[in-house]
Amino acid sequence: MENINNRYEKSTLGLSPLKIEGVKVIATSPEPDYSWVFVKVLTSEPGLYGLGSANNCYLAWAVKSAIEKHLGPFWVGKDPDRIEDLWQSTHVRSYWRNGTITNVIQSALDMALWDIKGKRANMPLYQLLGGKVRDAVPVYAHANGETEQACTENVQSYLEQGFRHVRVQMGGYGGGGFIPPGEGSRPKTGYQGQVFDEQLYVETIPKMFRHLRTQLGLGVNLLHDVHEHLTPTLALEFAKRMEPIRMFFVEDILPPEQIDYFRKIRGLTSTPMAMGELFTHPHEWRSLISNRLIDFIRCRISAIGGITQAKKIASLCEQFGVRTAWQEGGENDPINQLAAYHVDLTIPSFGIQESNHFSEKIHEMLPGTARIHDGYLYGSEKPGLGIDIDEQLVKKYPLADNYQNSDWTTVRGIDGSLVKP
Ligand code: MG
């Protein structure tokens, strides 16, 4: 009688070699904030394909053309089982590497290949990445408000929904420190819009958090995103003022251009630092992690090269006691979210995952989109990434021609000069 081992050998040896037969670019703007570019990697096995996210909403049209004209044709005919080799060869394919366009394209391919491998194995992807090291993925919610009390009430509503971690921003994007349009001492004929004032910021935000702690106690993990707005010495001042709040983390206290200052900040304050939303190159994260100068790495999975690169960063973090907090952001998509989810389930260096909510319309367009229950993210448990795309529905929402979606990145000070976003 045939034993189990023989049966297993037969079934694995019986898998026929695969080839990439085609690469389809699916670009869509189903809601005003979304400019999504996905790839569908088709294989020689009928019905077997993988999905990946090449989301860069600020350069979506360039990403689309780069896949269609440059990198997609390079992948056709290759073996989709050789994920690492295809990652490496795509990485050097356009010679100059680690660009914001090439990275998301590489990510899309990487996610699609992992998706294919998971489907072949008939397992959710996290099984192929080593299996679960946690039961579900805790996520943090985004609270905001115009006043201290409004912020407190918003945090409270998330606690009631089961979240244990809440990021709090006061006064909209960037989280405070803004002087309203036309106010303050400005050059006569200059910029009259809303401006950022870092002294105001360093004064008002720690005060708001003190209010939160007084109202809510220590039972909530509080997070805040500085959005790279501060100059180095005021960043240090801000971190010191946040010390009594006992933050879970303070994010992006400096722009990526000034990361050498983390050594100084680290030496003078115990406020936990999260950094890296804008990172795209290993030289940006490597020394911060290996010198233990930050507590959390905040890259976006699709901006750094996908699941393959995220697993490598997570391993580096594990060695040095740094934790992950993969970035999401309002314009991100469900496929990238699931890539993060499968990595999160399998890495000991996991810290927290940023949350992202999608409307029922998006769930219909991308069946298998993860859902949040009681502060935890859950995938579909289907093989691979566990998500599909309804291409008929996509046709109703073609990629928008909307260059103004980048307008928020232009932040100015009171003299009209640019502040790093
Ligand atoms: Mg951020």
Task: Set out the fold topology.
Layout: H1 4-13, E1 20-28, E2 36-43, E3 49-53, H2 60-75, H3 83-91, H4 100-121, H5 125-128, E4 137-145, H6 148-160, E5 165-170, E6 178-179, E7 195-196, H7 198-216, E8 221-225, H8 232-242, E9 249-251, H9 262-268, E10 273-275, H10 282-290, E11 296-297, H11 301-304, H12 307-320, E12 323-324, H13 334-346, E13 353-354, H14 360-365, E14 371-373, E15 376-378, H15 391-394, E16 411-412, E17 418-419
Parallel strand pairs: 4-5, 4-13, 5-8, 8-9, 9-10, 10-11, 11-12
Antiparallel strand pairs: 1-2, 2-3, 4-15, 6-7, 14-15, 16-17
The structure holds magnesium ion.
Can you offer a commentary on this structure?
The chain is an alpha/beta fold and 421 residues long. It has two domains: 120 residues, Enolase-like, domain 1 (2-Layer Sandwich); 249 residues, Enolase-like C-terminal domain (TIM Barrel, Alpha-Beta Barrel), CATH 3.20.20.120. Helices cover 38% and strands 16% of the residues. It is built from 15 helices and 17 strands. The strands form four sheets. Strands 4, 5, 8, 9, 10, 11, 12, 13, 14 and 15 form a ten-stranded mixed sheet that branches. It has a three-stranded antiparallel sheet with strand order 1-2-3. The protein has a two-stranded antiparallel ribbon with strand order 6-7. A hairpin with a 7-residue loop joins strand 1 and strand 2. Helix 7 packs parallel to helix 8. It is globular. It starts with a helix and ends with a strand. The mean pLDDT is 94. Bound molecules: magnesium ion. Magnesium ion binds next to loops.
